[in-house]
Amino acid sequence: SSISVNSNINRRFNNLNFRELEDYGLSIPPLQNRNYTFDWGYSVNYNPTKSIKTSFAITHNRSVRNYLLPDGSTNFNSNLWSDFFSIGEPLVHNQNLNVSYNLPLKKIPILSFIDANYVFNGTYQWQKRSEALADVGGFDLGNSIQNSNSHQLNANFDMRKLYKELGITQLKNSLLGKSKRKRKKKSKKKKVVKKEDEEGKKEVAGKKEQKTKKKQQKIYTQASAGEKFLGNVIGVLTSFQSLKVNYRQNNGIMLPGYLKSVGFLGSMQPNPAFALGWNDDNARYEAAKRGWLTQYPDFNQPYLNTFTEELSFQGTIKPLKALTVTFKGQKSYMENLSEQFNAVGNQFNALLPSTMGNYSISYAMINTAFENVTDKNSPAFNRMLDNRLTIARRLARERGVAVPATGYPDGYGPLQTEVVMYSFLTGYNKIDAGKTTLSPFRNLPIPNWRIKFSGLTRYKWIKKVFKNLSIEHSYKSDYTINQFTNNLQTFQDPNAKDAAGNYYSSYVMDNMTLTEAFNPLVKVNMELNNSLRLDVSMKKDRSISLNLNNYTLSEVSGKEYTLGLGYRLKDISFPLSIAGHRFDFSSDVILKINASVRNNITVIRGLSDNSNQITAGQTMYNLKFSADYALTKYLSAIAFYNHSYSKFAISTNYPFTNIRG
Length: 661
Prior knowledge:
- This protein is mostly beta strands and 661 residues long.
- It folds into three domains: 1-87, no CATH class; 96-180 and 217-362, no CATH class; 451-660, no CATH class.
- The protein has helices at residues 159-165, 168-175, 225-237, 272-275, 283-289, 379-399, 417-429, 460-463, 488-492; strands at 2-16, 31-46, 52-64, 89-102, 114-127, 135-136, 139-140, 143-158, 180-182, 218-220, 240-258, 303-320, 323-344, 347-362, 448-453, 466-486, 507-509, 511-528, 533-547, 552-578, 581-606, 612-630, 636-648, 656-660.
- The protein has a 20-stranded antiparallel sheet that branches. Strands 6-7 form a two-stranded antiparallel ribbon.
- β22 and β23 form a beta hairpin.
- α2 (168-175) runs antiparallel to α3 (225-237) and α6 (379-399) packs across α7 (417-429).
- The radius of gyration is 38 Å and the shape is extended.
- 17% of the residues are buried.
């Protein structure tokens, strides 16, 4: 535990005198600039246990104005040392609380495979009002207070330790014949024999080891076919190696018009929870009831409440020794609430609430990744159009609206915002529109993955040709809402309809975006025994964006094929003469050739008229060659040639060629 206190006195004084070059009888007063501050703070660190650490700190900035007279005029006789130890008035006050806790799970054998810790950080700030608008129409506009807090939980799961603790690892090894016993080492005996050679008296030590001595041996038990099968099954079931999870939540409140000041040692107002950083929305109502908020009826500084939530995880699975699968996922949600909060007498009015935020989550569209899509036809888009009727009827039932035997129900037409949103998600993910969640937000992220297999070289006929051979595959997909706001139309009247007779959606969103990338779909890395390297890969990606303003859908898709060659020419000599001096260089020459073909196309599809139009796209051919030669440790010579050619999908653009070398 520790306590520290610090203080800092800053005083700056500038005086500017004006002198007349000729005596005109004018008396110009001097211009003086004074900036006197008294800053201080303290911190308290206390660790009640080895796993719990706490700290509390404040910083206090005060403005000293001892040079002002009671009527507000300046006392020009006051100098830099006048009332030197005056503490002045509070200007800005900050306080911070930090708590960290390492969960003692390692002391519980069955949970020792988990390493987890929790961190809380809370802040509070009081800021003095502007002197220029301290009083308007007889009303004090008050100061401002704000707080924030963050909760962070990190957890690492070492599953191998769990399997070992449960005895599963030992069982698997015994079934696979990997259990071993050791023979005891037999003691070595030395026999020393002294001899005399012909020349004189030399002592020769000879050693004779016993023939029965054997080195330590590992003897493996022989497993039956059934035991091997069961051991391999256990190996697959225990292939989950590790998992890392991170969760973070941030909250914050900004409350303007606060009339109370702050104490010299800190503040616990408007309540201790708020002052320690906790997200307490009731604090504004408590402050208003106690008369701590400005009564100015036209006060227009908004009350702010922010919320951010982030979740991420990643893990590793190894079904085989040469097969590694890594997966990861993420989710982020941000929401900011802004509203006018006016306290007049005993009435507390919250006006014009406005919510704004964004959202992103790892997703999966692999169900529709390999469908036959053309500029004129898209199976996913057709499903989206067909799903609208099912979604509309479900929304009507939830709202209590009469559902006709056929056709769309009243208020939920084919272009109603919620109908379009949910049919978009179901159509491009190929899920049942009758069972999907009717919400634009998903709670659980779907993991993306990367797979690498490098076990082919264990076969002799492959090892004769290849030094290294590996295959890779990767998949990544995200669902993003760039910005959403609450709909004021539904706030005023939940049953309000637009000009087309559709119910307003609770949220206003400009667009929703689904992205997907196989990077790569498949990639083969080959290194031959003759030092030749060969890489072959195929990539595939697409991005689908739904515009909810004009009800159009933009599909951007791309495919890329890449071939890479590399070869190392070893110990190539290179003589060079400079100014009559001969230099002999010897180094490896690294040759690289990469050729790729990529095709991109952008199609705009209309929901209202079922139209399809290509708006952009191109086919790009690239050829790159380079040769690297290391002249010295710090100097290399590189020769390269790059050739690219683009052919565009629309007639308004001409083919383009770019050559560099």
